[in-house]
């Protein structure tokens, strides 16, 4: 049947321990505005909420008409609602330094006289490095655990999925590294006749890293704590994009919270003699709504109208809250 069987509010009530939510979808469909509205709503429920953007290109300051770059700031006069654009450049610089230290230590350990700089450049010059820095930022926030509820405004979703897939890849990689480190270490211990255990910062680092990754994966695949919502417009491309994403997420065991349909033209506001392009658009949206019900059915959580202006500032955001959480 073409109606919502579990609304956003009902979903939240059915998942009272929910703590980490994400909004994914094609660019421009309304992920950031939904994330903003969800954060406001959570704060209104009495939860200390953090809306964090890990995108290198931020849009939260624009959304709230307030500068939220670099540190969490209360937004919309909602005292429990904080927004925060993370400085990715800064994180990347810090990660580079950290890696440089590790590589230097390793070179010394291996009696190599090569300078670390070349290694660092090649290790950090690829796009995956920026993504992993963003991922680290995100899990840092999660582990610090200073808020009751987190909304992440993630990069356009191909990255979001990769970001999460990465925690699995990381684990595998670290597993391998650890194994070869352990072998090397026991060999050294065998060769040096003493039984004394050597300090091994690289091993410690890998162990610590592995712990962090498996902890992150544990949180992100826990369907009581985490939910990914997907935003689409009633148009073919955005629908195709989230259909693909949702299947990937199921494959990865990442909890899918449901689908938010955005940008519906209110039919009762369209006069019969409206311009043809408007009438055509309404008809097109109706067709795509059929498709949405067919594909996502019980996973549709909310249907949001196309507003007369963009969604920006406290007043519009509060209006959106009322539609997202009817
Ligand atoms: N229901 C809506 N009605 C009117 N404008 C909207 C609506 N939803 C989103 N917008 C506007 O569309 C643009 C894109 O939304 P945004 O949340 O930034 O998308 P995304 O984060 O997915 O790229 C913004 O200017 C936003 O204000
Ligand atoms: Mg956005």
What distinguishing features does this structure have?
single chain; 326 residues; alpha/beta; Rossmann fold; 55% helix; 13% strand; elongated; binds adenosine-5'-diphosphate
Note the total helix count: 11
User: How does the helix and strand content classify structurally?
Assistant: alpha/beta
Roughly what percent helix? 55-70%
Summarize the main sheet.
8 strands, mixed
Textual characterization of the structure:
The chain is 55% helix and 13% strand. By secondary structure, it is of the alpha/beta class. It has a single domain (8-90, 128-324), classed as 3-Layer(aba) Sandwich (Rossmann fold). It has an eight-stranded mixed β-sheet with strand order 3-4-2-5-1-6-7-8, with helices on both faces. Magnesium ion binds at residues 31-32, 59, 153.
Describe what is shown at a glance:
By secondary structure, the chain is of the alpha/beta class.
């Amino acid at each position: 049947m073409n109606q919502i069987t579990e609304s956003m509010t009902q979903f939240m009530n059915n998942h009272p321990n929910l703590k980490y939510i994400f909004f994914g979808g094609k660019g421009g469909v309304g992920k950031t505005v939904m994330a903003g509205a969800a954060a406001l709503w959570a704060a209104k429920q009495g939860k200390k909420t953090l809306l964090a953007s890990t995108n290198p290109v931020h849009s939260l300051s624009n959304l709230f008409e307030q500068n939220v770059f670099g540190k969490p700031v209360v937004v919309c006069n909602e005292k429990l609602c904080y927004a925060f654009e993370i400085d990715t450049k800064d994180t990347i610089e810090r990660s580079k330094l950290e890696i440089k230290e590790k590589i230097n230590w390793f070179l010394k350990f291996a009696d190599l006289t090569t300078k670390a700089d070349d290694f660092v450049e090649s290790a950090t010059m690829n796009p995956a490095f920026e993504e992993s820095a963003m991922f680290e930022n995100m899990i840092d926030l999660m582990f610090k655990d200073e808020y009751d509820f987190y909304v992440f405004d993630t990069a356009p979703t191909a990255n979001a999925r990769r970001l999460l897939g990465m925690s699995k890849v990381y684990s595998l990689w670290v597993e391998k590294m650890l194994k070869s480190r352990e072998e090397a270490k026991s060999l050294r211990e065998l060769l040096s006749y003493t039984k004394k255990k050597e300090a091994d910062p690289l091993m410690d680092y890998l162990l610590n890293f592995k712990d962090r990754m498996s902890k992150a994966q544990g949180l992100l695949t826990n369907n009581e704590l985490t939910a990914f919502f997907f935003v689409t417009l009633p148009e073919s491309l955005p629908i195709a994009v989230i259909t693909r994403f949702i299947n990937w997420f199921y494959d990865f065991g990442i909890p899918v919270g449901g689908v938010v349909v955005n940008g519906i033209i209110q039919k009762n506001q369209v006069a019969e003699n409206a311009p043809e392009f408007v009438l055509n658009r309404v008809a097109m949206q109706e067709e795509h709504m059929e498709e949405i019900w067919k594909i996502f059915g019980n996973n549709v959580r909310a249907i949001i109208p196309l507003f007369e202006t963009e969604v920006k500032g406290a007043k519009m955001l509060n209006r959106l809250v009322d539609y997202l959480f009817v």
